[in-house]
Amino acid sequence: MGARRLFYALWPDEPVLDGLAAVQQRHRDAGRPVPRDRLHLTVLFLGEADLRIAAAAGAAAAAWGGPLRLELDTLGYFAKSRVVWAGATACPEPLIALHRALYRELRRCGVRVGRSRLVPHVTLFRKARPVRGAITEVPEWRVDRITLVSSRREAAGPIYSMEAEWRLGRGGIPECDVE
Ligand code: ATP
Ligand code: MG
After folding, report:
1. Angle, CA of 112, 103 and 55, to the nearest 5°
2. Domains in the chain and their CATH numbers?
3. Which of 21, 34, 69, 144 places its Cα 20 to 30 Å from the Cα of 137?
4. Ligand with smallest separation from the Cα of 42
């Protein structure tokens, strides 16, 4: 059995998925498309970590954040991993704050994560050739929740499982809403 890796992600709603699928369709010769049910935006990658600690840190960080809006308006390319992604030219401040809050809460829980700059993106193609440029198919994405996901590697591709999900902002963690 492969190791289970954890990451915090935003899962697109149906209108955003429709837009992303339209982009994949338009650029279908770019590479191997990521299946619709795996399209996501990773806010922070944890790797192998304790699930309960990751859940506690995620809940705390989510409660700090608030709903946010994302415009996936551009295609980018990571040459090293050979992926084509849809991204936001302007990274919204609340998303940066959420990313920071996750680091802070993980550190508070004794988990050290290598710092990396947040490049908000949804991977659309793997084993891809470079494609870049503006896209107009994806409607505004209203993000109101964050998900803790585990990933297991299988021959057919990674298997993602939703481990926990929180609403952004107050009300994210009932067990901490002690007044
Ligand atoms: P696979 O690696 O099995 O092909 P995957 O990349 O979708 O599939 P994971 O490697 O578990 O699955 O990654 C889960 C998510 O975390 C993906 O969005 C991936 O881009 C991101 N990720 C993985 N490793 C890192 C890393 N070292 N730094 C930042 N993000 C990462
Ligand atoms: Mg990977």
Report:
1. 85
2. 3-165 (3.90.1140.10)
3. 144
4. 1
- Mean pLDDT of all residues belonging to the chain: 92
The CB of 158 under 6 Å from ligand 1? The reply is yes
pLDDT in tens, 76-104: 999 999 999 999 999 999 999 999 999 99
Does the C-beta of 42 come closer than 6 Å to ligand 1?
yes
CB 91 within 8 A of CB 118: yes
Ligand 1 atom with minimal separation from the 149 CA: 14
Pocket test for ligand 1, best of 84, 124, 151, 154 (most atoms within 8 A of CB): 151
Single out the residue of 130, 119, 138, 151 nearest to residue 49, CA to CA. Answer: 151
Q: Which helix (H) or strand (E) holds 153?
A: strand 145-154
Q: What are the pLDDT digits (tens) for 110-163?
A: 998 888 889 999 999 999 999 999 999 999 999 999 999 999 999 988 999 999
- For a ligand 1 pocket test, name from 45, 106, 152, 159 the mutation site with the most ligand atoms within 8 angstroms of its C-beta: 45
pLDDT computed for residue 1 by the predictor = 53
